[in-house]
Amino acid sequence: MFHVTTVKQFDLNTTMQLMEHAERLRSMKRSDLANQLAGRLIATLFYEPSTRTRLSFEAAVYRLGGQVISAENARETSSSKKGETLADVFRVVGAYVDAIVIRHHSAEELDEAIPYSTVPVISAGAGSGEHPTQALLDTYTIWRELGRLDELTVAVLGDLKYGRTVHSLLRMLTKMKRIRVKLFHPTGLCLPAHLEEEVALAGVEIEHCDTIEQALSDSDVVYQTRIQSERLEGLDEACAATEYAIHHEHLTVLPEHARILHPLPRVGEIDPAIDPDARAAYFRQAENGLYMRMALLDQLLKGELS
C-alpha cells in the first residue's frame, strides 16, 4: 500500500506525471471532474492548525466527486485527548474511509502508526519533519512559472531549522540537475546539519548568504518562509522577522524573471506592497495546491502510485 510521507518517494518522472495530470484536471469541466472519485470517502485529521492544506485537500476531494469527514483541532477534540494512540486511530478511521489525510505534531509518531492503517495515508505535514505535498505543489509552481526544473538558483529564506516545507523542498531539489541553493536565515534557525549534508552529497551547490541582497541577487526562485514560533522558545521573533523580511526596495536586486514563493501564512516576511509585482507567485502557488492535491488523490485512489 502506498502512503505519502516523504518526497523521497517521488522521483522526477513520477513528479512530472503528477504535474501533467494536475494540468489535465485543471482544464476539465466541473461536470467531468465530479466523476473521478465518485463514491469515495476521505478523512482529514488535523492535529495542528491549517488553512490552505486542509481546505485545498477537502476542496480537491469535493471537486473530484468524493466526500469528506473531518476532524479539525483533533489534538484537543478527538479521543487523542483521552490518550488514544495514533495507531488505533488509523485502525478505526481506516474502517470508515478510503484514505486518510493527516497533519500531526510528531513525525516519529506518525511514522510508527502508519503501518497499522488499512487505507492509504497522506501526510499533510508532520512536526518539523516534512510536508511532502507542499513540495509537490512548490515544484509544480516553479515548473508553471519558469517552464523548467533544471539549472535553477533557489534562495531559501527564513526558518530553515523547523520549517518542514523547506526540508521537503530541498529534498525535492536534489532530484533536479544543476541546482544551486542559497541559504539565508535568522541566527539560530539554520538548516539541520544532517539535511545540509544530505543535500550537498546529492550534488546541490550550497551557498550561505550574509545579507538578503546577496540571497536575492541572481536567484531564479526565492522561497520565503515564516518563523515557526509554535516550535520555538527564547527567540525574539520580531527581531528575526525584520532580519530576513523581503521589502519592496529589495525587488531592485531581484532578476525580472525570478519568482517569489511562500508556503503561507506570511507573518511579516513579505511586504504586501510586493503583491502586485508579477514576480510575487505565492497566491498562484496556493491555488496550484488544489490541482496538485487533486492529481495526487486521483492517482493514489486509482492505484496509479506505487
UniProtKB/TrEMBL annotation:
Q: Which Pfam families match?
A: OTCace, OTCace_N
Pathway assigned in UniProt: Pyrimidine metabolism; UMP biosynthesis via de novo pathway; (S)-dihydroorotate from bicarbonate: step 2/3
Sorted keywords for this record are: Pyrimidine biosynthesis, Transferase
This entry's Gene Ontology molecular function terms read: aspartate carbamoyltransferase activity
Q: What residue stretches are annotated with the Aspartate/ornithine carbamoyltransferase Asp/Orn-binding domain?
A: 151-298
As recorded in UniProt, its EC number(s) are 2.1.3.2
Return the Gene3D superfamilies for the record.
Answer: Aspartate/ornithine carbamoyltransferase
Catalytic activity field: carbamoyl phosphate + L-aspartate = N-carbamoyl-L-aspartate + phosphate + H(+)
Q: Which SUPFAM superfamilies match?
A: Aspartate/ornithine carbamoyltransferase
PROSITE patterns assigned: CARBAMOYLTRANSFERASE (PS00097)
Enzyme class label: transferase
The record describes the protein's role as: Catalyzes the condensation of carbamoyl phosphate and aspartate to form carbamoyl aspartate and inorganic phosphate, the committed step in the de novo pyrimidine nucleotide biosynthesis pathway.
What's the protein called, per UniProt? Aspartate carbamoyltransferase
Native organism is Alicyclobacillus dauci
- Tell me the gene name: pyrB
